[in-house]
Design brief:
heterodimer, A: about 450 residues, alpha/beta, Rossmann fold, Helicase, Ruva Protein, domain 3, 4 domains, 5-stranded parallel sheet, about 50% helix, elongated, B: about 180 residues, Collagenase (Catalytic Domain), 5 helices
């Protein structure tokens, strides 16, 4: 159980470090030695040790300084400071700076043995905790959606119930709540799972392009249509089409869409041949369609056709119990993807995450974990790593000029972000805490080019 | 046949050495050979602690190990230590050729108690097997009765038995087989 743990003994006296290393090796630990603080830091740079025995007085970097440097890389490192000169001051300093223990040489074998045993016991518990958390995350996940919130669990049950039906589904929820994940879960839980799942962001394209994108076009139907092209509905034949941001489509497309949903057939742009398809439609929107219907900007017949089964995804602030679960789930995946050896989130950092309002919902949380991970220097994500959340919360330094319009501000911010990301839409959207379709939508609205 | 060499370093009770020899021979299934006494390890004496450095005794012993001896057990009456610890009962080189054992703290008299020679010899046996067990690569065992359990005080030493648990015996047999033609009995 304990044999895989590694210990580093750092002391400038050869007999001291070698004999302690040999004694610890008899206990089954893998023990390495370093003759100075510098050598210890070099070793700690390439390996994380479970326990660091550091002599307090060493030429060059002393034990406390070595500990502080090690902690920059390994925040959870267990450090035992050793000294032959017992003074209350040094003991207080060592403990204040974060040493786990402070021992005076020589100490009894029993003391050292119990000390090491206690630290390793905690390490083993932490490791078990990590394994349990991964199991828990799997337990609470449904097709990549992680939640233990009662409303979300109800949604999981509903998804199972409706997965194999052909009925249209309307998914409602704010930006970043995971509408596409729910759509995918419906598709992959049902009897269409082995057929295509095709997602279309209706907000991303201009009306004519979206029409061609959805229904395809015949050769020569418009300038640039050099070949016949299959549309998304044809591609999704037998499977599911996911129409994201359905609230943003034009009145003409609303008519075309209503026809497809009713007749299950359509005409390609510029074509006279009716194309029949077997497609299940799932639509999603962040806008209130009922209000849009009342305002006359969305057809009521299309709304009723879409609104057969409705799934309302709660915002993250209404399911705070999911925040630790989601944060750890993102950490596990992203640390692997980014090749970072970070597997923990400190309690204070979790508290910060729990207190945040998350206007950008789950996507914002995912972005926050990624941002913290990129800059993290230790094995644990700390409150400092999430400092940008606090800055955002407390930065009331904005002074709005007189007569400024919100649209102007949004336009300027989007343009500045696009300039900074060299027109990279994905990066800009991520930086702004919105999804790509929303960014395209705003760019269209403010006539911004990449 | 593989040999475990045994030698006194400085003063060491003859009966304890002879008993350790028999125990090592029967347990490890090897011949033991008594070497002439090594000089009193004055070089290892630490006046401030009034103890002897086991690390230095061990280093000296390595130079004196006969070429045909697979392992060497050095026994001394001196109280021994490693710098970090206030004392050790013994010290061995993990997977190495030599070990040192101190008789000093195995006696009841050291603690101001009446002598108990049988108990003393039983402790000698446990510690001798324990240290040579390390020389064959065994690490501390979590079985409270196994002789490879770490004993940091006499209570723990007296609680364990002078035998290897099943797992340690298996590991020991493998270690001996790879290094000799002998086998544990």
């Amino acid at each position: 159980m304990r044999k895989h743990w590694e210990i580093l003994v750092v002391d400038d006296e050869p007999v001291m470090r070698e004999s302690l290393a040999e004694w610890l090796a008899e206990d089954g630990y893998s023990v390495e030695t370093a003759a100075s603080g510098q050598e210890a830091l070099a070793k700690a740079a390439v390996r994380d040790y479970a326990i660091y025995f550091l002599d307090l007085k060493m030429p060059g970097i002393d034990g406390i300084e070595t500990m502080l440097e090690i902690r920059k890389r390994h925040a959870d490192a267990s450090v035992i400071i050793m000294t032959a000169y017992a003074t209350v001051d040094t003991a207080i300093t060592a403990m204040k700076e974060g040493a786990q223990e402070y021992v005076v040489k020589p100490c009894s074998p029993e003391e050292i043995s119990l000390l090491v045993e206690r630290i390793i016991k905690v390490k083993n518990l932490q490791r078990e905790n990590l394994i349990l958390r991964k199991k828990l995350s799997k337990h609470y996940s449904f097709h990549d959606i992680v939640s233990k919130n009662p409303k979300m669990v109800e949604i999981f049950d509903l998804i199972r119930d409706i997965a194999s039906l052909r009925s249209t589904v309307l998914i409602l929820g704010g930006s970043g709540t995971g509408k596409e994940l729910v759509a995918r879960a419906i598709h992959y839980s049902g009897n269409r799972a082995d057929k295509p799942f095709v997602a279309v962001s209706c907000a991303a394209l201009a009306e004519t392009l979206l029409e061609s994108e959805l229904f395809g076009h015949e050769k020569g139907s418009f300038t640039g249509a050099n070949d016949r092209k299959r549309g998304k509905f044809e591609m999704a034949d037998g499977g599911t089409i996911f129409l994201d941001e359905i609230g943003d489509i034009s009145p003409k497309l609303q008519v075309d869409l209503l026809r497809v949903l009713q007749e299950r057939s359509f005409f390609r742009v510029g074509g006279g041949e009716e194309v029949k398809v077997d497609v299940r439609a799932i639509a999603a929107t962040r806008v209130n369609l009922q209000e849009a219907v009342a305002a006359g900007t969305f057809r009521d017949d299309l709304f009723y056709r879409l609104n057969v089964i409705t799934i309302q995804i709660p915002p993250l602030r209404d399911r705070r119990e999911d925040i630790p679960l989601l944060a750890h789930s993102f950490l596990d995946r992203l640390s692997h993807e980014l090749g970072k050896d970070v597997h923990e989130i400190s309690e204070s950092a979790l508290k910060l995450l729990l207190d945040h309002e998350w206007p950008g919902n789950v996507r914002e949380l995912e972005n926050a974990v990624e941002r913290a991970l990129v800059t993290a220097r230790t094995h644990v994500l700390t409150e400092e790593d999430f400092g940008f959340l606090q800055q955002a919360k407390t930065s009331n330094g904005w002074v709005a000029p007189d007569n400024v319009l919100l649209d102007d501000v949004q336009r300027q911010v989007i343009m500045a972000t696009l300039r900074r990301t060299n027109g990279n839409i994905k990066e800009a959207a991520s930086s702004l805490g919105i999804d790509r379709s929303t960014l395209y939508d705003r760019m269209k609205k403010y006539a911004i080019e990449r | 046949m593989a040999v475990i060499a045994v030698a006194a370093a400085g003063p060491a009770e003859e009966e304890a050495i002879a008993y350790a020899e028999v125990c090592l021979s029967t347990t490890f299934g090897m011949e033991t050979r008594r070497l002439g006494p090594f000089p009193d390890p004055e070089y290892a004496y630490d006046a401030a602690r009034n103890q002897y450095s086991s690390t230095l005794v061990l280093r000296e012993a390595l130079d004196r190990r006969p070429a045909d001896a697979l392992k060497l057990m050095v026994i001394t009456d001196h109280d021994i230590f490693i710098p970090m610890l206030s004392f050790v009962y013994g010290q061995a080189q993990l997977n190495g050729p030599a070990a040192v054992l101190s008789l000093s703290r195995l006696r009841q008299e050291f603690y101001g108690l009446p002598p108990n020679h049988a108990l003393f010899l039983l402790r000698v046996r446990k510690e001798a097997l324990h240290e040579i067990g390390h020389c064959f690569g065994l690490t501390h065992c979590s079985d409270p009765l196994c002789t490879m359990r770490l004993s940091t005080n006499l209570q723990l030493l007296d609680e364990k038995q002078a035998e290897f648990c099943g797992d340690c015996a298996t590991l020991l047999r493998d270690a001996i087989n790879t290094s000799t033609t002998g086998a544990i009995k």
